[in-house]
Amino acid sequence: MKYFSAFTGVGGFDLGMPNWECVGFSEIDKHANEVLRYRFPKVKNYGDIRQIEWKKIPNFEMLVGGTPCQDLSLAGKRQGLEGSQSRLFFEFIRALKEKKPQYFIWENVKGALSSNKGWDFARVLLEFSEAGYALWWQVLDASWFGVPQHRERVFVVGNLGKEPPIKVFFEPSDNKKVTRLQGQTDNTQKIKYAHYDHQQYKRIYETNGIAPTLHRYTGGFQNVKIAIPVLTPDRIKKKQNGRRFKQNGEPTFTLTRQDRQGIFDGKTIRALTPIECERLMGWEDDWTRYGIDETGKVVELSDTQRYNLIGNGVVPQVVSAIIKHGKWN
């Protein structure tokens, strides 16, 4: 099956797709495009979705993407679908009407349900329906799918002129495969420490390690006894859903581009490194570390750039679960 990836970011949605052919991306962020060139060198990026002439795009059976959410998010100004960013939703609709793919998967923040007292999401469903699609939708939390992050997103799946391709409704469960932050056997269970100094701050010592500042000890291997997710170590009063600290063993707070997550080890609080944030998104280590600029040169992205890209991303395990439980011709 062929698909088109809109509002691609760094390819979080695409990491969750099966071995289907991607006929194109639509992404305009400079640093996201650098990562896309590095990770998906054979896929063409058509740039600004507002400028795309869909009749010139190769045909595809599925359109996927998460339209910008800033105006729908509870953390934003709540301007709704008429906001400058979230109104790009109508470009997603334009693509559906002009290309008429058999299926689509659309993703957005949970705040889309309450924006404009619920009328914005009603408009979303109406627009999809008037474009000819039968719909399935549900709010899904990444922590239900083996990812140690509390990240609620609404997914809408459509099938052109037929019954919805998916009828399974996912439920929260005590998923035994969930790898809690302090129990990631492959990632953070045993960490090799060296003497702490400023040059070693945030340094990753080996592929299964994390920054040495989790414990400021020296020598040997240490078992992580406690790792409590903390919201924004640099802003003491900041809370998410009324909380600043999680309990030991709970998934982290939702990663965003504004808030820098941290962990408390019982002694100190430190910020999560970009590689740990990538793991909390279910991505490969260093997925956002390198890119290719417009001149073809390989570049290394700054931590700030990586945090921004990660906070805007999609958890591929959720996408994979939707694809797995759907019926696609």
Q: Rg, please?
A: 20 Å
Shape: globular
SSE order = EHEHEHEHEEEEEEEHEEHH
Largest sheet: 6 strands, mixed
What is the overall number of helices? 7
Q: Helices and strands: which structural class?
A: alpha/beta
Low-pLDDT stretches? 174-222
Fraction in beta strands: 15-25%
For the termini, the CA-CA separation is 9 Å
Describe the strand arrangement of the main beta sheet, using strand numbers. Answer: 2-1-3-4-6-5
What is the averaged pLDDT score?
82
| DSSP helix fraction | 10-25%
Count of beta strands: 13
Please provide a written account of the structure.
It contains seven helices and 13 strands. The chain has 329 residues and is α/β, with parallel strands linked by helices. The protein has a six-stranded mixed beta sheet with strand order 2-1-3-4-6-5, with helices on one face. Helix 1 links the parallel strand 1 and strand 2. The termini are close together. About 15% of the residues have low confidence.
